[in-house]
Amino acid sequence: MLLRMKILVIGSGGREHALLWKLSQSRRVKALHCAPGNAGTAELATNHPVAATDLPGLVALAKAEQIDLTVVGPDDPLAAGIVDCFHKEGLRVFGPVAAAARLEASKSFAKEFMVRHGIPTAGSSTFSDPEAALAHCAKAMYPLVVKADGLALGKGVVIAQTREEAETAVRQSMIEKVFGDAGNTVVIEEFLTGPECSIHALVDGTGYALFPDAKDHKRALDGDLGLNTGGMGTISPSREVDGAMQERIRREVMEPFVRGLAADGLPFSGMLFPGLMMTPNGPKVLEFNCRFGDPETQSLMRRLQSDLLDLIEATIEGKLSSVTPEWDDRAAVCIVLASGGYPGPIEKGKVITGIEAADSDPDVVVFHAGTALKDGMVVTNGGRVLGVTALGATLEEARTKAYAAADKITFEGKQLRRDIGG
Ligand code: AMP
Ligand code: GLY
Prior knowledge:
Layout: E1 5-11, H1 14-23, E2 29-36, H2 41-44, E3 46-47, H3 55-64, E4 69-72, H4 75-79, H5 82-88, E5 93-94, H6 98-105, H7 107-116, E6 124-127, H8 130-139, E7 144-148, E8 157-160, H9 163-175, E9 186-190, E10 196-198, E11 201-203, E12 208-210, E13 215-216, E14 219-221, E15 225-228, E16 233-236, H10 243-264, E17 270-279, E18 282-289, H11 296-303, H12 308-316, E19 331-338, H13 355-359, E20 364-368, E21 371-374, E22 377-380, E23 384-392, H14 395-406
Parallel strand pairs: 1-2, 1-4, 2-3, 4-5
Antiparallel strand pairs: 6-9, 7-8, 7-9, 10-17, 11-12, 11-17, 13-16, 14-15, 16-19, 17-18, 19-23, 20-23, 21-22
Bound molecules: adenosine monophosphate and glycine (GLY).
C-alpha cells in the first residue's frame, strides 16, 4: 500500500516554493504545509503564520497538523537547532543537527574541518582578538578577504584591496559589532581568483548524492557590478564543470568531506552546498552551506526528474548509497525579479501583474519569493520577489524563454539582471 505523507516545508523564499513544487509531483504526498510561506506556496500548500525561527511554534505546528516529515529551508533555524528540537519530540525532519550546521554557521569551524581533512580552501588565520587581527592586516599581502565568523545575512565578507579597507572591516566586525556576535571572531584569508560555482550534494553521514552544478550571480547589477545580494539568478549546468571536473570535485571535496565526518564523529544529514572557486590550482571551497541554495534550488528542481521525497527520505534513513537521482539534460535558467532598491531598503505592497501570462509557456515556471496576497491580489513583500525559471535544449534557449517570461511580469520598481547565464 502506498503510504501517503503530510509534509511541512519551513521558509518563505523561492527555494521553498521550488521544493514544494517538486514535492507536489510525488505520488506519496498527501498534503503540503508551509511556514510561513508566500503567495506562491499558498497555491500548493496550506500556509501557516509561524516564523522560520520560531522553533517552539514550529514543533507545535508539526504536532497539531500531524506532519510526517518536515523539510527545513533556511540556515538560521538549522543553526539554532531546529533539527535537534524536532528529534527530541520524536518528529521526522530533514536537515543537519546544530553541531553539523556549524559548518555553515561558523567559518572558523569550517576552516578547521577543511584543513584537518585536506579539503582545498584558501589559506587563512582566525582571530578573536581585534588587536591581533589588526596586526595581521599590517603585514599582510593585498588583496585579502575578511570574513565574519558567523551568519551575517550574506554581508559578512569583505574583499579588502588595501590595508585600510581590511582594518575598517576588522573594526566594524569585531569592535563596532555591526553583525552582532556573529562578527566577534573573524577569518582573514587569501584572495583567490577564478569563476565560482555552486555544488549541491545530499549527505547521509557516510554516503552522498552529488547534484549537477549550478551558478549563481550574486552581484546586484549586470557585469557583476553593484552590491552583493542573496543571488540574482542561476543557471544549471554552469560552464565551469565538465565530467572531469565533476570527478575532481567528488575526489577532492566530497570524499574527504564524508571521511572527515566519520573521523570527527560529526553527524551530518541533509543538504551540503559548498560554494567553490575554480582557481588555476583547481577547485577550492569558499564556504560550506548546510541547506539548499537560493536561487540555485529553483534551477535544480526544474531539472530533477526523480521523486524529491524519495531522495529526502533516503537521506534521513542513511540509504543514499542505493539511490541515483535522475536529471533532465536540458539547461535551466532562473531570473530573479527584485524590488527597487534591493539589496538596500525596499518598499513592499506593490501589485504584481503578468505572472499567469509568464507561466503560460510550458517550459516556464514562476516561483514566488517575497510575495503576499492582499485583497485577492499578489503584491511584493520582500527584496527578491519572484524567480522566473525556464528549461531549454541549450542554455541560450532557456535564457531566451526565461527573459521573455520575465518581461511579461510588471510591478513598480521591478529590477533584474539582463546577463544571467550570458
Ligand atoms: P562566502 O560567503 O564565503 O561565499 O563569500 C561571499 C563571496 O565573497 C563569494 O561568493 C566570493 O565571491 C567572495 N569570496 C569569498 N572568499 C573569497 C576568497 N578567498 N577569495 C576571493 N573571493 C572570495
Ligand atoms: N545563492 C546563494 C545561497 O543560497 O547562499
